[in-house]
Amino acid sequence: METIPKIISAPSAASATSKTARPVPARPRQYDARLARWLVTPLVNTRVTPNHLTTVRLIVGLACTWAFAQGSYAMANLGAILLVLSNFIDHTDGELARISGKTSRIGHFYDLASDAFVTVLLFGGIGMGVAAAAPGKFPLPVPLSASALGWIAGVAVALIFFLRMRIEERVGKSGTKQASVGGFETEDVLYLMPLVTLFDGTRGFLIAAAIGAPLFALLVIADYVRVMRRPLPVKAGDGASAEPVAPTAPMAPMAPAAFAADAEIERALDTVDFDSVTREFKSQDAFLYMEKFLPPSVTEQLIAAARAVTPNVNRNYLPGHKQGGSVSRHTLDERAPFVAELYRSPALMRFLERLAGEKLLPSPQDDPHAYALYYYTRPGDHIGWHYDTSYYKGRRYTLLLGVVDQSSCKLEYRLHTRNPGVPQVDGAVAYPPGALVFFDGDKLHHRITPLGDNEERISLTFEYVTDPRMGAWQRFISNMKDAIAYFGFRQVFRQIFGRTKR
């Protein structure tokens, strides 16, 4: 047998710090951002602000546009050099804001507006320059001038900027992250512009931009429509629902604490190397362990929630298989709503969807297993080897979060048990408060080892599905299993008799 795969840890978001100490942001993955941070670090305690650097970027960008618009070979090369400089300076304001704490909503908007303005004028300037160099010549076999092509590309880019800004407003920066390879992002292709102008390829670049920018804009439009159709938690009074439900079952709005938790999770996810954890998840047959995931402030609220519902724990015992206590989603909805809102965290669900590589949905409202707390509080509490078998038509993914762990218990698992010809991998991990385990329930064979004397362990599970449909017979089997092995008949069947409040 192979040993446990390597553990990937994601740094948790910084919790409350002292008034004089400021947490150091994670090192950027992009090379130009790393260089930008190194250059602006001496400016942290000076009067220079990120807005000053944004203004410098704007001026250099306008000079770049003017140079391209002149139409000569020499000015095009000058414009390309200014473009590289402008693109690099664009990283400096953000890095200074991150390491100095000099952030503001106005500054963020100023940065976005400058980016859009410079980029739109850049393509317009390139088009004007190509038109000036070859008057009356159509760059394409259609009656469109070079100047027109430039402004077509520019307008498409403006639309892209606008839609990405709206997406970011709705779901945060992680919703607009660019693809990256080897420390370089998609936009970094502009660093190659000096090679384009050196070999007199400005006209070809213009044609490619006039075709590519509108096509990319269509992709962004599709992404925008998808994001806007996804229901998100709202603040009290906004009148929107946190989850798609039947009109007769309105959902309570997200509490301010849950909004803060979502923001904390998003900040923590900014430090995660998504490419690395995704590769790990796939190589381990849809299994991932992260020792540090939830920010401490979120974990503290989960601990408080777990303590609040302790009187409602349903103890169960199946000889030879499991012993322990549990609290279903129905009780959590009533007595610990923070858990329910965390379950629907947009930042958390985006992260899990990216790992799974497919759309994930909350489990149906009548599923007591959708989110539940599990209590190991008596010596011998455990659960034997099992799969999280799904009775849904689609796949069901399980997310385990550590809440309290003052124990010697381990999550033992076996990977690739259902992959013929692939060597089985055995492993064991403890998931302390804030740790994460995410896996496809039908693939991972796992168990929790018995609790020792004077020990305690509480964990939280979230279940997400790809298709929430379930046949009547499968629903009956699932309900009976949950009633006998986990939550008791009253908790499981209370929805049927209309006793729930949500």
Could you write a compact summary of the structure shown?
The protein has 502 residues and is an alpha+beta fold.
Short descriptors:
Jelly Rolls; 46% helix; disordered C terminus; single chain; two-stranded antiparallel sheet; 502 residues; Four Helix Bundle (Hemerythrin (Met), subunit A); alpha+beta
Secondary structure elements and their pairing?
Blueprint: H1 31-40, H2 50-69, H3 73-100, H4 105-133, H5 146-171, E1 180-181, E2 184-185, H6 193-198, H7 202-229, H8 256-269, H9 274-283, E3 287-290, H10 296-308, E4 314-318, E5 322-327, H11 329-335, H12 337-343, H13 346-356, E6 361-362, E7 371-376, E8 382-386, E9 396-406, E10 411-415, E11 425-429, E12 436-440, E13 445-448, E14 456-465, H14 472-487, H15 489-493
Antiparallel strand pairs: 1-2, 3-12, 4-5, 5-7, 5-8, 6-14, 7-14, 8-13, 9-12, 9-14, 10-11, 10-13
Helix pairs in contact: 1-3, 2-3, 2-4, 4-5, 4-7, 5-7, 8-13, 11-12
Question: What would your notes on this structure say?
Answer:
The protein is α+β, with helices and mostly antiparallel strands. The chain has two domains: 31-174 and 183-229, CDP-alcohol phosphotransferase transmembrane (TM) domain (Four Helix Bundle (Hemerythrin (Met), subunit A)); 272-498, q2cbj1_9rhob like domain (Jelly Rolls, Sandwich). The protein has helices at 31-40, 50-69, 73-100, 105-133, 146-171, 193-198, 202-229, 256-269, 274-283, 296-308, 329-335, 337-343, 346-356, 472-487, 489-493, and strands at residues 180-181, 184-185, 287-290, 314-318, 322-327, 361-362, 371-376, 382-386, 396-406, 411-415, 425-429, 436-440, 445-448, 456-465. Strands 3, 4, 5, 6, 7, 8, 9, 10, 11, 12, 13 and 14 form a twelve-stranded antiparallel β-sheet that branches. The protein has a two-stranded antiparallel sheet with strand order 1-2. A hairpin with a 3-residue loop joins strand 4 (314-318) and strand 5. The longest helix is centred in the N-terminal third of the chain and has 29 residues, at 105-133. The chain is elongated, with a radius of gyration of 27 Å. Pfam families: CDP-OH_P_transf, HalD. One of its GO terms (biological process) is phospholipid biosynthetic process. Belongs to the CDP-alcohol phosphatidyltransferase class-I family. The chain crosses the membrane at residues 58-88, 109-134, 140-163, 205-225.
